[in-house]
Every structure is written in C-alpha cells, then in structure tokens.
Amino acid sequence: MNRKERMEQQRQQERLEEVRDALRKRELLEPGISMPGMSRRTFMHKSLMFAGGVAGLSTANLWLPIINTFDMAFASENAEGGINNFRFAWISDTHLYPEDVNTRFVEKAKRAVDEINALDPPVDFVVMGGDLAQLGDPVELRLGKEIMDELEVDVYYIPGEHDWYLDMGETFVDLFGESPWTFDHKGVRFIGLDTISRAPDYWSVTNMSPEERMGHMAGLDNSVTGPWAGLGRSQRDWLESTLNDWDRDDPVVIFSHNPLYEYYPPWNFWVRDWRETLEILRPFNNVTDFHGHTHQVLYNEIDNIRLIGMLATAWPWPYAPEGVPPMTRPMTRVDPGDHFDGLGWDLMTFQDNRVEHEYMMWRRRDHIFANRPEDNAVTKNPSIKLQPRVADRMWTGRYRGTD
Amino acid sequence: MNKAKTERYRVRHLMGLGALAGAFTLAATLVFSGVVRDVIGPAYAHKEHHQEDELQIFEEIFMEYVILGDRLFHGDAELEEEMGVNLSDTGMACAMCHPFAKDTNPHEFPKFQEQMGEFSTLAGMTNWCIDNPNQGEEIDVDSEAMKALEAYQYWSHDGSVLNPGVH
C-alpha cells in the first residue's frame, strides 16, 4: 500500500469515526430513539399500540391491548394453587459449520452458553430450539453437542431442518434423542415439537444425493423443498392425547422450530397444519409457543395462544415482505458490520403462572425495538416489491465448505 | 490571376468535392450494411424499429445475468470457481441474510452507507458485504460477476419505486 492509499484509508477511517460520533451524540440528544422506559420484555399491549401506530390499524382493532390480555392470559391459579417461580433459557439457530470453516458462529454459540451459565440465580433448564448445525454434518452436530454440554443445567433439544436432511435425522436423534417430548415442571406442562421431519419427498424423483437434498433445504428462499414444515397427523394426535389430562387453566408452554401460524410460507415461516394444531390448543387458556427459525423479533396472538419468535445466535433474517403479525413490535435494523448485532438468546421467567419473555440481544440491550420508521425494516420502505427466485431449480445444492 | 492558374484551382476544387462525396458514400455504405455496427459497436442503436427477435435477445441476455447472479447470491461454489471469484470464506452466502434479496434495497442506491462511512453505489455495498460479513475477496466492479449480482438484486426488486439516497 503506497502513501496515497494509506492517506485515503486514514481519511475514510476518520470520516467513519466522525459519523459514528455524530450518531452517538444524536442518540444522546434525542432520547426517543432509545425508547426510554421500555424494557426488552415482550409487553404485548405496548407492542400492539406501536403496531397500531405504524401499520395504521383502526381503533376498532385496538380493543385487545386496552384490556391487556397479557395479564388476562396468566391470571389463573396454577394446579397447586401456589407459586411457580423459576426461569429457563432458550438458544437456537446456531447454524454451526465445522470450526475451521466459520469461527464466528462457534464464538457466538459459546457466548450464549457462557452468559446462561453466569446467570444468578441459575435457570432450571435450557431449550435448544433447532438448527444447531448448518448442513446437518455429523461434525457440526458433534461440535454443537460439545458446546451445549458446557451448560450446567439440563438441555432439551428439538430439531431444525438444518440438523436433519443430510442423514434424515440419524445423527441428531442419536446425539439428542427423539421429538416430540413433554415434561411437567413446577406446575407447567412443557412440550417440544418436531415441525421439520415430515417434508414431502422432493429428493427421490430426481435422485438427489444427501448433500443435494440438504443443500436445497438449507436455502430459505428456494421453492424446491415445498411446504416442508408441519406436525403431521400422528404428532397432532400425540399432542391431543398429551394434553388430555391437563387442566385447561394451567400453563402450557410449546417449543417449536417453526412458528405455529402462517407468517410467510415461501420461507416456511409457518407450519402447513397450523390451523389444526391451534385447534388442539384452543381449549387451553394459558398457552405460549416459543419458536425459532425466523431469526427475528416476533409477537403474535391467536385466540388464547401467544406465539413469540426467538433470537438466533448465527445471523438475523430480514422481516418477510408481507405477513408480519400486526402485534409485532419490529426490531431495529441490524448493523451487518457487527456480527453480534441483533442476535443473542432468550430468557423466560415464570412467576405466579405468568411467563415473561426477554430478548437477551447482544449490542441492543436498551433499544431492541425500532421507534422511527427509518430504523424499522418492516415499514421503512412500503414501496418495495420482491420477486421469488429464478434459479433455485438450477441450483446444485452444493454450498461453500461442503466440497 | 491567369487563365491556366484558375483552371488548376477549379480542378483541385472538383477533386476535393469528389473525395468528400466518395468518403460520404463509403461511410453510408458501411453504416447501412451493418459493418460499422458489427466492427465498432452499436453506433446504429435506435435508428430502426426493433424487431421481436431483437427484444427477445435483449431479455435473454438480461435474464442470463439474473440467473448467474441468483446462483452467485445463493453461494454456488462451482459457479464462483468458473467465474474466478471467491465471494465467501465463512460458508456465508449473500442470500443467507437476504432471502429474495430482501433488504439489499438496490432502488435506494447510490446513498451514504453508514457501515462504509462513505457515499456508495450498489456495487460498492455488495463488495463491502463480500469483504466483511462473508470475509471473501472483493471483485472488480466492472466484472461479469458484479454485473450478475447487480442484475439479480435489481430484478428481485422489479416494480419497486426508486428511492435513491434514503437511509
């Protein structure tokens, strides 16, 4: 690099620092940007008010938050009539490559584990919400197990599609056990679902190799894999029978990799049988679904059921071009220059049968949620139109690092 | 001025006019026969009404680049090798953060790009992403690969309203 190039680089660096200084000062001068008084907790009623303001919902649609269903949904006594105070944590979407391919993803997964271990008082357990690996490679899954084994409490696993479609779940089940599963803990029924293993067969007719099958599945915006997310009849029957003996006012917490509603099917931000699944849950008055896969802040309510999108540790997804639930208070746009930004893990606190959820988002502890339209990737430019892919059926299914 | 001298000027003048006319005739012949268009490029553009097959060729060329761009954008390692580029050293592909090219916002460029600390074109920002999140190797802004990546991002946003400069 010659002197002129060095000077130019230095000038650009100084300019960047100036801009950053200016932004920092502006933030201090305009406290509205950092949302004073709003915690990172998922307060439904405030999110609705925000959504109403942004999306232009009519006042007729805003009666729910005024009643404050956050309180209503969790007002009932638990089965023992006592208090169930405890916390649990969620990690998902670590998307680990072998360590020699990508060290950043490993670094972030380890950071989540270290931060959960450092909690005082500790959590009772941790849920790994799927997509531990990126391409289902046993090397990736074993690396994931090694990292998750550092957690000092029990860990419950549900699979993601990235964990599954290389060897059809063989390594995942061998390392982490089968799904679905259920257990009761301090008056709460916890249920882990498998929303990923029942994809219609898209590989046999063209004789895809396992790597090609996995490669297609790993591309979020491809059309080759079709509507792969779903519970299927047998699992829905299992869910119904699992809840048969449960009091309708006692809390139920569901863990699923995909959201249990129709957010955006082209990216499988749904399960195809979400209506039938929610019908099974409808009689229960205190149900929360925590889901991964979407890598973003999401909040929805359908009947008595709350559905909350959890953070990834690997990378954030943009909001889909349509279908974002109006109740969602969008997260602030992330900085692609900071590979921790917009990511993290989730902490849930049960108290008196009420579960509170917190986004433990790195770099954004004080302003997770967007305030201004310019900071909000959902409303920032309503004139955007997007087309689906053109070459996904010409895709070889082979990613970098898989040769 | 004597008569002989006047005659010489007249002959030279006529020869000059003849040379000019000859040059003009040659140029016209070359232009209308398509030789100039074939040899030095499309200097003849928009001088005739387009034929359907011509329009189809233009569209096919565009879509060829879109398809190449789609494959590069989604991490096609073989194509990268064929085109002599290395867009990622981390396993990351552009589409992992930008499914359907969402949030690339090509219709907003050029603009001041906060991460770069400078005014940037779409190609400049694409190179920044290759260099930073992907940790690959930046590519020539005039390269075939960059043309393809730009084509895919623009095509993905077909119908969006231009909004240059907006943050």
List the helices and strands and how they pair.
The complex is a heterodimer of chains A (403) and B (167).
Chain A: H1 3-29, H2 44-55, H3 63-67, H4 69-73, E1 86-91, H5 103-117, E2 125-128, H6 138-148, E3 154-157, H7 170-176, E4 181-185, E5 188-192, H8 210-218, H9 233-243, E6 252-256, H10 274-281, E7 287-291, E8 298-302, E9 305-309, E10 344-351, E11 354-361
Parallel strand pairs in A: 1-2, 2-3, 5-6, 6-7, 7-9
Antiparallel strand pairs in A: 1-10, 4-5, 8-9, 10-11
Helix pairs in contact in A: 6-7
Chain B: H1 3-33, H2 35-40, H3 52-73, H4 77-83, H5 94-97, E1 111-113, E2 118-120, H6 122-131, H7 144-156
Antiparallel strand pairs in B: 1-2
Helix pairs in contact in B: 3-7
CATH secondary-structure class of the largest domain in chain B? Mainly Alpha
Strand content of chain B: under 5%
- Tell me the major beta sheet of chain B: 2 strands, antiparallel
Q: Summarize the helix and strand pattern of chain B as letters.
A: HHHHHEEHH
Count of individual beta strands of chain A = 11
Taking all Cα atoms into account, the compactness measure Rg of chain A is 22 Å
The side-by-side strand order for the widest beta sheet of chain B comes to: 1-2
Stretches of chain B where pLDDT is under 50 for at least 5 consecutive residues are none
Which strand order spans the largest sheet of chain A, edge to edge or round the barrel?
Answer: 4-5-6-7-9-8
Please bin the fraction of helical residues of chain B.
55-70%
At CATH level 2, the architecture of the largest domain in chain A is 4-Layer Sandwich
